[in-house]
User: Fold this.
Amino acid sequence: MSHKTKEKEPVKIVNLGDPQYYLNRELSWLEFNRRVLQEASDPRTPLLERVKFAAIFSSNLDEFFMVRVATLQRQIAAGVESLTPDGRTPQQQLDEISQRLHPMVDQLQEFFETELCPQLATEGVHVLKASELSQPQHRYLQQYFEKQIFPILTPLAVDPAHPFPVMSNLSLNLAIVLQDPETEETRFARVKVPDSLPRFVPLPADLHPKSDRPVVWAGVSLEQIIADNLNALFPGMTIQEHHLFRVTRDADLTVQEEEADDLAVAIAQELGKRRFGGSVVRFQFAPTMSEFVKQTLVRGMNVDANDFYVTRGWLGLRDLMSFMALPLPHLKDQPWEPVIPKRLRHLHEQVAIGEDPGEGIFEVIRQGDLLVHHPYESFAASVELFITEAAQDPAVQAIKMTLYRTSSDSPIIKALIAAAQNGKQVVALVELKARFDEASNLNWAHALEDAGVHVVYGVMGLKTHTKIALVIRQEGDEIRRYVHIGTGNYNAKTAKIYTDLGLLSCREELGADLTDLFNYLTGFSKQKSFRKLLVAPVTLRDRMVSLIRREIEHCQDGKPGRIIAKMNALIDPGIIKTLYEASQAGVQIDLIIRGMCCLRPGIPGVSENIRVISIVGRYLEHSRIFHFHNNGQEEVFIGSADWMQRNLDRRVEAVTPVEDPVCARQLKEILTILLADNRQAWDLQPDGSYIQRQPSENDPEKSAQVILMERSSQSR
Assistant:
């Protein structure tokens, strides 16, 4: 009896560049904002925190239109027909954004009206409508209007003698149709709702509505007060109709660096255009707006019908953030006080009792690398301490650092100014192109220059996004270099609400690398290699690809391959393709991507070994960690770069290996905790949708952020 040998099936060759294997970045971002919206509607989230997430959702959308939608519209206007890696034209992307976004906006409006407002009312917070006001409340608000609002307002007529007014970006406006009773002519006017006044105006306690529970706050929106008093603005005219609308403009700055003699001057000039100069990219209005008013506004602002966003409810819900100031702690997250890192506690105790801490933080760093994790550990007691001590230490000769975004009352800026006044060499690389922080950074740059700090603006054509500080200290006959390399900005405010990591070290190779990197940033260096650092746009992309390929080689040799990576976004097609190749080779890959992810996980034959989660919670997940198993010789990195084209090719970024065993183990533990989250974690599906994890009956709720707070608290 003969047996036929079963022929081996040919290996199917997959084109990993096929658009079907890539998600669209804009639609992926919308899915991220949908997760933010879910936090607003999740009953497990404290009520005022839900209000906050509703405000964040709206604020996120504003920026999305000002930058991403504006970019697509410019591409269409320029006749761009090129396809994205997922195979879409700019017009197709705009169409799909509109289709997906309208239901989300409607969902938020309905949720705010039918759930949030009633629940706030039960807690003593009453956001009232004009129709709900009593006569005494009306009279009070009329007096408030006359004293506080009326003097600020400027009604603008539109007729041959009065050109159509320019509407500022993100402005709330009232369009008013009037009739002259003498001539019976119809007139059109616009009144801007001033952004210099609070959006929500409180009523005095004696005019609070009657309620079974104590009233903490009651009031109405500013636009309702103005609408109720339009007769005072147009005496003798008949108000026929009025409608609220909101305008969003293209706010992306375009600076030709090569043609700019002074980058600071060029940026300042462009900032003046942002508020009024960009084209309208979104026109929000109520469905009750008459066709006459709509067409008048469309002609005056040159708005395309594709930019219409009919909004059934409140406009500009980003202003809900003001309610977080209400004294209702039981409706907010439990307050968190960051922990002083254990190895630094004795320094603060010595200062508190008036003792001399000696060489302070520098002595601690010499004893071994220190990894700090914000906001679980204090930014002020670690990173700020590092810079402020350096500013006062007579042994410190020089301080060099990058500033991408910083807070309005920054202790670090003050320390750099003090250091310069103390005669130290101080270099600050201020990134003037940090989007929406350009004006603030310009002001800081001027203040630093006035104090004698050497201020530079980075490398032509590149945005300096890296978060690095270098302190040079004279110790006996030697010069020792101390470094901080982080994932987040030197910003005391965001350090309390963003999760970020920083490495404090005096390893000689890291100090030498930062010296070379600062020379690259401030001078004419063409540095092509670094000892330890992975630097974009020089070595980072190639090194990341080689680290992924090393895991592939291990699998091909019959050894395990494993990658865990955490970042804000995964967009770069080259990196995604390499990850697909790794999955095909058997490498097990876990990705923790907060926002946009263009990789499709779980596709048989392509990405079945890749899992992607997103964590959206109390803190904005901002840290970047890259872990490679390397056949048991594990390597782990932290830094400022996401896996996006802009970070790998168009920005200056620095990613550092974390070689201290204790610090590396800390990072591995953080990743393990994040991957086990079943409260704020969402699993990305192959079709681009996300499913929120839910704890099972036998599996208790595990919130990674709560666990990390508890662990930090236990170390106090």
Q: What stands out?
A: Confidence is low (pLDDT under 50) at residues 1-11, 255-267. Residues 72 and 78 are 10 Å apart (CA to CA). The longest strand covers residues 238-249.
